[in-house]
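User: What would this chain look like folded?
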Amino acid sequence: MNKMEKSNRNRNIFVIVFILFVALFAYISYDMSSRTTAPWNRPKQLNRALPGATPDADSLLLDSLLEDVK
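Assistant: Here's the prediction, encoded as structure tokens.
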């Protein structure tokens, strides 16, 4: 019975460590995603934060992201 008890104890420790590891990475992922902006939202966010920071039109037609700013 001693081996069985030790096996169960090791299994329980592994399960607890695994759950803590997954929870930590879920928290880190959520924290990173809440602090970043998706690439397609960046021009809109810049225009809200600093009105007039982005030009109304891309005169050289180099940046296709500025089309969504209007």
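Helices lie at 2-35, 42-49. If you want, I can go into more detail on any region.
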